[in-house]
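Hey, can you fold this one?
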Amino acid sequence: MQGYYYTICSLPHLVFSALSPPLNSITFLLLCEIELGPEDMSLINSITLLPPAVVPDTLPSVSRRWYSAERQLRQELARQRAARLGRNDFIPQTAVSPFIKKIVRQVMALDSPWEADKMLDLARWQILNELAAEDDFGLPYLVVYCLKLKFLERRASFNQQSGQRLRQKIINQINWPERTL
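Sure. Predicted structure:
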């Protein structure tokens, strides 16, 4: 496996609790372009937090494992939400790691959506840390770094005022559904 020592050593450390990422995705991609070939660069450009409907077998192991863990997390959340609503037959039962089951149980017990989202992202961060150990100076590390950077950018985009406006809009739609037509 090819090592990307220069690129990886030049990247700032990412910390989950940071209020904003130390660089943005565009800068990250520009740094990657220095050393990565077209095929690896194409992979880095295609990375998303949301798993695709079908995960191609041609993706590196780290990407496939990330998408599998994210899909398990989302399915377990859906399954437990459905169970809470008494719709146990809604989501088919699939194999889920004990770590993900534990996290989802803890998240479902929280009253605050903000805290629940933060706990889910921290669990995702832990999963990514495990995946990064696959190769400290290769493509897997850059895939994980890209995903972590996307999480930090997502979290930095949140602000209280827009969150309150969105919450009020949802409440209004629930209370006055005919107004949204």
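Residues 5-71+124-180 form one domain. Let me know if you want another pass with a different chain boundary.
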